[in-house]
Amino acid sequence: MTEIAARIQQLKREKNALILAHVYTPPEIQDLADFVGDSLGLSRKSADASVPQDKIIFCGVYFMAETAALLSPQKKVFIPEPNAGCPMADMADADGVVKLKNMHPGAAVVTYVNSTAAVKAVSDICVTSANAVDIVRKLPQKKIIFVPDRSLGAYVAAQIPDKEIILWPGFCPTHHRILAEFLARVKAEHPQALVLAHPENNKNILDQADFIGSTGQMQKYAAASAAEEFIVASENNLLYRLRTDNPAKKFYPVTPLAVCPNMKKNTPEKLLNVLENETNLVSVDTAVADKARQAIQKMLELT
Ligand code: SF4
Q1: Ligand 1 centroid – CA 172 distance (Å)
Q2: CB 3.0-4.6 Å disulfide test: which of 38, 141, 228, 283 passes with 215?
Q3: Looking at residues 154-163, what average pLDDT do you find?
Q4: Structural domains of the chain sorted by starting position, each given as residue range(s) with its CATH number in brackets
Q5: Closest residue (by CA) to atom 8 of ligand 1?
Q6: What pTM was estimated for this model as a whole?
Q7: How far is the CA of 174 from the centre of ligand 1 (A)?
């Protein structure tokens, strides 16, 4: 163990802090975390009242730490790098969503958790990529405004053709850098490999996938599958998790471009700094927090 890793482990115990990390964070961060997961898994962990720690250090991007703060108002939530944003979350604004809502009275606003607390607060319910199809199917409304990811929204619409889905024009730049021609090349190099894709991918990637799901669902699929080789059309740090958990199997990235620069801003040095100095506390305006929390809790109840 490196000196910095040992210091982080020691301080974590002394300060009664839980380290959570998203599967897109760099390997050295995943190795330091108490729990590594996708948005749904991390939301559940944040909301889990049986977790004894009273502090959460959230290694991910800002909206994720904000979600943890919403779900655990009695705990202090810190983020190693407060400027780790999500470009897709920043593509939607609360005023715009309210305007769209007014144009479609009676429609339910369904918001992907990859969004700001302010946007969640004007939404009827949140979803993750793991539960979006199930939740939209369960809603009584026939008309849905889906915010902010047009790719996930289009994927949901294709699964539930009897609902009208109005798409917000947001997207994940990292997943959209994974192009069909890159995938074709990797498939030609590894013809036996199954293709795992994420609903944030472009449709021409999803059309070539053997399995489509959230990162957590991809992990379960790869572990249970009899196949030994997989091409992963998602953020490349997910491959570290997949390789660590399945050492006998092979995982190939589609392109070195599939990296989320904001997730990369999480470093052991910044994690140590937060533990030492208790800086970068994440807080959400109370009026916004109550409404945003309701949208997330509705999701957890329906999941
Ligand atoms: S991978 Fe995409 S959606 Fe996820 S945090 Fe990065 S930019 Fe946002």
Answers
A1: 6
A2: 38
A3: 98
A4: 3-85+263-284 (3.40.50.10800), 89-172+288-302 (3.40.50.10800), 178-253 (3.40.50.10800)
A5: 86
A6: 0.95
A7: 6
